[in-house]
Write a structure and sequence with these properties.
The complex is a heterodimer of chains A (151) and B (537). Chain A has 151 residues and is an all-alpha fold. Chain A folds into 2 domains: 100 residues, no CATH class; 31 residues, no CATH class. In chain A, helix 1 crosses helix 5 and helix 1 packs across helix 6. Chain B is α/β, with parallel strands linked by helices. Chain B has a single domain, classed as FAD/NAD(P)-binding domain (3-Layer(bba) Sandwich), CATH 3.50.50. In chain B, strands 1, 2, 5, 6, 7, 8 and 16 form a 7-stranded mixed beta sheet that branches. Chain B has a 6-stranded antiparallel beta sheet with strand order 4-10-11-12-9-15, covered by helices on one side. In chain B, strands 3-14-13 form a 3-stranded mixed beta sheet. The relative contact order of chain B is 0.19. The chains are: A mainly alpha (151), B alpha/beta (537). Chains A and B meet through helix 3, helix 6 and helix 9 of A and helix 2, helix 6, strand 4, helix 10 and helix 11 of B.
Chain lengths: 151, 537
């Protein structure tokens, strides 16, 4: 995407976004609100990652839907569910890609944790697969139509 | 334009296209492949990037209709309860598949004989076993020998199993208490370095491309070898139709490049490897005066009997943080406890269960597949209880073939090249519904026994059509099947279809290992019968 995706959003749309963000994810339980977290940098990140969201987001934030975020959501839910989904994704995407929020929820991101194939698995140490094997075959023999008998 | 016909022209560079291309080119065949997508590099994949959970919902969605990329063709799925999923590119849908690699079971090949429904396959598990073993080596499969869900004997898996993770261990212990089957899942994901590829790092993003190249896909495992052996792979090549001569043989394919220029690729033998929707579409598009209902369709079965494995998800929530966003997506453990038919349950056949990771915070925060959404102050508690605290049983049920579930050509929609798109007609059968309901109950018991304090159920996932099967079934009778037992068209002796189209029944397992084993078997057969092969003059 060329240019700044936020250039499509004026002050009323940004205010509406912040109101909806705070309504969906308010400050509570030692967590900040989404309106606090999602600054221009975060919203720009979301829209650069997902340029297809710009249009439905702008529509979901249009002033005609009023100032009350709950009412805006109710109207979108009833008549424009795809635009509401775009709005929710923009809020959630902006919030949970913030480094501080991720730290607070104990999520370090998808990490590279190399497999140690030489490590003896606990399930073997506990004999869990041995127990399964000891119960015998469970596949159905096409020749007899029955489960295979343990020999 | 090519002038010298290829010995074999392959349509599609995915799982089976790669297997057939490598086998035949290494045997000295002059192979050409037309692929509508492109090569993808590991650096493109978003799993190790901050935007992973954003882009998985659009650019890296498993649905071509959601992605809408130039190389994708749209699918009209308005008459379908499940959305088909696929990917166009070298490596095909393997780029976005999970990597689970179970084989079908012996009973899967004898459904008519054993359960009085559907049809038997014209081959057995034992006939296919050597090909399973060879493709396991080609792709690099990590698994544990000795699973009593399968007949004993044969080769051990080439690589040790992947870790089962803390969630897998909890459920394994629960199954020990219940006396239920479980086993480490076989995956085509490397547990150790193999064939020049790096092993898995448990990032849990397999379905949006593997950044390590640890998950098998033919762009890594087969195409480099095929190309080194002389195969020619043309990307950005969208096939419009197969052409035939007066003798009823395929002479090659007409295709369009990215700029819309038309080409013809002549061939002695043509192999369709474009998945059960794409191949059926091409057969139907290749109608002619001699084949008014589409190519290879004297039986009238081309496009019919589409099977997609209705899928349910049963998620357990645990008090402990299991860090369940990590781990191979191809599944940690599996269970075949309720796989075989028990008529007392009120349905035939069964389902395999696979335990999978649970994605990251955006997935935990957004409305769930089952429609649950939590906003307001409680949102934070909801995310804390879900993120990393889940273990999900994915349930694939046997999907019995039904001629009404089918692929047709749209009369109103075309792709960007003006070619009619496939239209999917698909309903979940009563047997499937009863089957899934039973398995949801049992899987819930499994997770509760494992210590879950809550279980959340998605009883039918719409975006779950990963397994595309059955639209050109194989069989011995040309009146009731499209392909013979070697994947060759009954009506067209120089045409093979090697993808999941050939499936007679679906089984209840992830099908890729069976699809590629059948493709390798078909390629071997081409080589063995090369001197008897009819080709156009």
């Amino acid at each position: 995407m060329s240019g700044d995706p936020l250039s499509d959003f004026g002050r009323p749309e940004r205010a509406a976004f912040a109101a909806v963000a705070d309504h969906l994810i308010p400050a509570a339980h030692d967590m900040p609100s989404a309106g606090e977290v999602i600054n221009d940098t975060r919203l720009r990140f979301v829209l650069r990652s997902r340029p297809d969201l710009v249009e439905p987001l702008r529509a979901a934030l249009r002033p005609e839907l009023g100032e009350d975020p709950a009412q805006r959501i109710t109207r979108l839910q009833a008549d424009e569910p795809d635009r509401l989904a775009a709005l929710q994704l923009a809020v959630v995407g902006g919030y949970y890609t913030d480094a501080h929020v991720r730290e607070l929820i104990g999520y370090p991101g998808q990490e590279a944790r190399p497999v140690d194939a030489g490590r003896y698995p606990e399930y073997l140490a506990e004999g869990l697969t041995d127990q399964v094997a000891a119960r015998g075959p469970i596949w159905r023999d096409p020749a007899t139509g029955r489960r295979v008998e343990t020999s | 334009m090519a002038t010298e016909p290829a010995d074999v022209l392959i349509i599609g560079a995915g799982a089976t296209g790669g297997v057939v291309a490598r086998r035949l080119s290494e045997a000295g065949y002059r192979v050409v492949c037309l692929e509508q997508g492109d090569w993808h590099d590991k650096e493109e994949y978003r799993g190790n990037k901050l935007d992973w959970e954003l882009t998985m919902r659009k650019q890296w969605s498993t649905s071509p209709n959601v992605r809408g990329l130039p190389e994708d063709y749209p699918i009209d799925e308005t008459d379908a309860e499940i959305s088909p999923l696929m990917f166009s590119g070298v490596g095909g849908s393997m780029l976005i598949f999970a990597g689970a690699w179970p084989r079908m079971l012996p009973s899967d090949f004898r459904v008519r004989s054993l359960d009085g429904v559907a049809d038997d396959w014209p081959l057995t598990y034992e006939e296919l076993r050597p090909f399973y073993e060879r493709t396991d080596r080609e792709f690099g499969v990590s698994a544990m020998a000795g699973d009593p869900a399968y007949p004993a004997g044969g080769e051990d898996p080439p690589l040790p199993p992947l870790p089962i993770g803390p969630g897998g261990l909890k459920v394994a212990r629960a199954h020990a208490r219940l006396g239920w089957h479980w086993w480490p899942e076989p995956n085509s994901i490397l547990s150790v370095p193999y064939d020049g590829r790096r092993p898995c790092v448990q990032r849990g993003t397999c379905q949006q491309g593997c950044n390590e190249g640890a998950k098998a896909s033919t762009d890594l495992t087969h195409w480099p070898k095929a190309i080194a052996a002389g195969a020619r792979l043309i990307t950005g090549a969208r096939v419009r139709r197969l052409e035939t001569n007066d003798a009823g043989l395929v002479t090659g394919a007409t295709w369009l490049d990215r700029d819309g220029n038309e080409h013809f690729e002549p061939a002695r033998v043509t192999v369709l490897a474009a998945n059960a929707i794409g191949s059926a579409r091409l057969l139907l598009l290749s109608d002619s005066a001699a084949h008014p209902d589409g190519l290879a369709n004297a039986s009238g079965l081309v496009g019919k009997r589409l099977m997609m494995h209705p899928f349910a998800n049963v998620g357990g929530l645990f008090e402990e943080n299991l860090e369940s966003w990590q781990g191979q997506f191809g599944c940690s453990i599996e269970s075949f406890e309720f796989y075989e038919t028990d008529e007392r349950r009120g349905f035939v056949r069964g389902a395999k269960w696979g335990l999978a990771p649970t994605f990251g915070p955006i997935n935990a925060a957004l409305p769930s597949r089952a429609g649950t959404q939590v906003w307001g102050p409680e949102h934070h508690l909801h995310v804390r209880s879900h993120l990393g605290h889940g273990a999900n049983w994915g349930l694939f049920g046997e999907d019995l073939p039904d001629p009404a579930n089918r692929v047709t050509l749209s009369k109103t929609m075309t792709d960007s090249s003006g070619i009619p798109v496939p239209e999917i007609h698909y309903r979940v059968s009563d047997n499937s519904r009863r089957l899934l309901d039973f398995h949801i109950q049992r899987a819930s018991e499994s997770l509760l026994e494992a210590g879950a304090h809550a279980v959340e159920v998605d009883s039918l996932m719409r975006y779950s059509g990963w397994h595309l099967l059955g639209t050109a079934r194989m069989g011995d009778d040309p009146q009731t099947s499209v392909l013979n037992r070697w994947n060759r068209a009954h009506d067209v002796p120089n045409l093979y279809v090697v993808d999941g189209s050939s499936f007679v029944t679906s089984g209840g397992v992830n099908p890729t290992s069976t699809i590629v084993a059948l493709a390798l078997r078909a390629a071997d057969h081409m080589i063995e019968t090369r001197f008897d092969q009819e080709v156009p003059a």
